[in-house]
Fold these 3 entries.
Entry 1:
Amino acid sequence: MKEPSTKIAARQLPSGIWALGFVSMLMDISSEMIHALLPIYLVTVLGTSTLTVGVIEGIAEATASITKIFSGALSDWLGKRKVLAVIGYGLAAVTKPIFPLATTIEWLVAARFIDRLGKGIRGAPRDALLADIAPPDARGASFGLRQALDNIGAFSGPLIAILVLWLHPGDFSLVFWIAVLPAFLSVFFLMAFVEEPPRPAALRKVKMPLSRSEISQFGAGFWSVIAVGVVFTLARFSEAFLILRAQQSGMQAYLIPAVLVVMNIVYSLAAYPAGVLSDRIGRGGILAAGLVLLVMADLALGLSTTLLGVMLGVVLWGLHMGLTQGILSSMVADTAPPELRGTAFGVFNLLTGIATLIASVVAGALWDSAGYQATFLAGSIFAALALAGLGLLKMMGGTPKTK
């Protein structure tokens, strides 16, 4: 009985899944080309302070996290996902020309805010749309494929930016202009190649997705997934700390961006096979393996005294991302009522976004007060707690193989 599922996962995923993956990849190429250079551009070209950079980034990410819950709920109320995904990707695309044209900090702040607003609008509806399109027995493979393609964009964008600046030193505007093309291509791919499946006639109409009566439709399995996801996210603070750790270990400044490139390459290579395997043997075991890898990554980063040890930690970090991020999304889709998937992804993204913010603040405070060892050792403890929580999740039926 498992063989047909394997064939679907590996060879016969719907074209809409591939198209959504390419949409994510193209937008990530565009966004990462800009985001990899924007802090440097703000400080060296426009003369802003690092505090200003931090405030801009904090507001931007908070905007994205808060918007996701409302856009997800709206997609459930409308009974349509694609229109909100198009609006979200479209907003992000139209902001891209502002970056090379802006001459003041106010214009860049506005562009960054609208860009993240677009991310918030598209995030939950896009994930719910992917869950609607994906065959139930290939849901892990579908989320894994999107995650893999998304991370190809995550490491390709900075590499393209580095290449352009190597050929045209200091020409930030040229990089920003080049980033415009993949952004608009992503919107074209979404509109032309992603077809939203018709809403099943028997599916219950949702009137107030964020009301108490609708939220009560989420069962114990869903809230268990949320609980484990939040605890796990508290252990997985910002990747900026990987960069700081590499710098602290003595890596040359021009090589430091390679840390995120390596991490995202490993992440991309692991995500799809992990999703396929989760469809065959269940989600819980793959997620548990990912949490074990996170404990090992934190220990390597916290205890290593050599650059080689630090890079081993970076590789393990990328592996744990590949084995967990798509799996968690699959588990949200597995445990949420189909008519409330948008709201479910909105709740998941909001709570894990808050957890990421808390984790990064705590990680920074520990680093400043007790050193990098305390930051990564604390991360390993939270990862172990999340691993222990998987036992509860399994008992409450939150890790079905398929639906």
Entry 2:
Amino acid sequence: MQSLKQQWFGNIRGDILSGIVVALALIPEAIAFSIIAGVNPMVGLYASFTIAVLIAFVGGRPGMISAATGAMALVMVPLVRDYGVEYLFAATILTGIIQIIFGILKIAKLMKFIPNAVMIGFVNSLAILIFMAQVPHFVGISTMTYVFVAITLVIVYTLPRFIKVIPAPLIAIVLLTAIAILSGFDLRTIGDLGTITQTLPSFIIPDVPFTFETLQIIFPFSLSLAIVGLVESLLTSRIVDDMTGTESNKNQEARGQGIANFVNGFFGGMAGCAMIGQSVINVKSGGRGRLSTLIAGLFLMFLILILGDLVVKIPMPVLAGIMIMVCIGTFDWSSFKYLVKAPRTDAIVMLTTVIIVVLTHDLSKGVIAGVILSAIFFVVKISTVKIIQEGNRYIVEGQLFFASTDSFIHYFKNANIESNHIQIDFSNSRIWDDSGVGALVSIEEMLRNKGISVEVLDLDKSSKRIMDKLEGISTH
């Protein structure tokens, strides 16, 4: 109870103010992601409102912001194009169900298999993608656009030295919006991205046939959305953990994302997940608790319903400037030193993750590629078995499994063994799979045919177990 109270009311002022900043920054992104997915801007806005409000209660990472995201929007494009928005709503509901199941199965424990090099690549690629998304809003438009971006950056970086009560991004938005309105400068605004309808989301049942054919259509998209959403959410959760020095419940977060998307589909929203950019804005603006996430969602809808006429006048260069600040803060600048000092394989994994994410705009593909590449490098690294001869005893150094059996067999095939009895010592080794068992059996039979008996020494319990199961070889 004390922990829950702290999560909700331990940082009231900071959470409220940071939530307001996040809500203002959510609007252009939600509209932009809706455009990417090929749906009405309100679909992204409704999703951001619904998911943010729900995840504040059911999520596992206080202070993390979840809403409509670009990574999810990219997955939706073919579904919306070929079947329409109603199928998207149905897919969003199914996405939620799949994520809830993943959460129940404790899928978050797989996070430990994501190497540090992949994490660094994930963070850096996100920073690059966020920056790339801002480029159309300020490059090649007008001189005044550059001026407003520059002033925004000056405010967000210098003002916190003098004013800490109110987040600098919020001051920048209010002050520069007022200047833009009063001066009449020709600047692009949020209203240029799409029409905002000043209405609350309403409960709907997706207008699709409830048939197996519909399930066949939406299931592949829902599974992709569920995986992409959880990868981005759990990695973002880990980043916020590091930024705040606190722990989060990853399995609860997975279930929470599922509940939020399940409900969201019934209110006309697109599937969403955690947002690294908005989460960083929230933390840097002082947000720490669940209240900040709730305020972000509620204030977003307040802006749409009550202040919609003013919101559409917020200059895009101001929001672009704030997001550039997020990019600078998110990017791991020490990774340049990491590239030089880290093992070459880790540097390759990090760069590969970044390149794939940036080229595909798909975070899951980059992370999965990075994990697979790390696994391959690891297997290659441990796939060489070294054998040390001490008289008639042959001491095996290294792990015996499918990738190392060739070097193991090759040694004994080419060894000049003069004794009619040898010992193969596994005190510094372990047999991991049937390939390892097969290699040992093969060597034993080959040497027996040459009149050489083999005694296997010091197998650990696990190695003995797999040997007994597969071949029943007598060991000592």
Entry 3:
Amino acid sequence: MQQRHATLSLVMIAMFAALTAIGAFIKVPLPVVPFTLQIVFVFLAGCLLGSRNGLLSQVVYIGIGLVGLPVFTQGGGITYVMQPTFGYLIGFALAAFVIGWLIEKVETPTKMHFIGANIVGLILIYAVAVPYLYVALNIWLDVKTSWSHILLVGFLNSIVADFCLAIASALLAERLYTVFRSARSIKIVHIKKEHV
């Protein structure tokens, strides 16, 4: 039974990594920072898989992209860390962890717990991504950009839609939460050796 739970957890981690990659290609082109549906799967990963597995799903996604597979919105490869939007990916991993951690603190989470956790995760994503965007453009890429422009392209252009997605994802997560119970923790199987 423990082995089954562990296998299921690994499958769910891989599945949410793949869904995040798919979400990268469901996008609306915007200046500098395109709007994508990746964030939906980040919210769901945190809510449904828990802190550790939610984080792992995003780490797997980021790792696959950094080794060269074109799973990010603008390709892949180790040099992607220099892209202005890489801060969002870091934020995704942190948000999935924090959302899962907040949900784990509640024995029986309600609709408001899921909504609250997703909003905290959303704030965390932007708290990491917006400063990263500013540093990447102004220092690494030497594209002199004001904070007002950064806030416009990196925050104001997408915050309303992302807020709506946070709520919609929370409502969906509430319905799916019990289904994903077995995938929320990887259990280590201990094999006892008997000495004759």
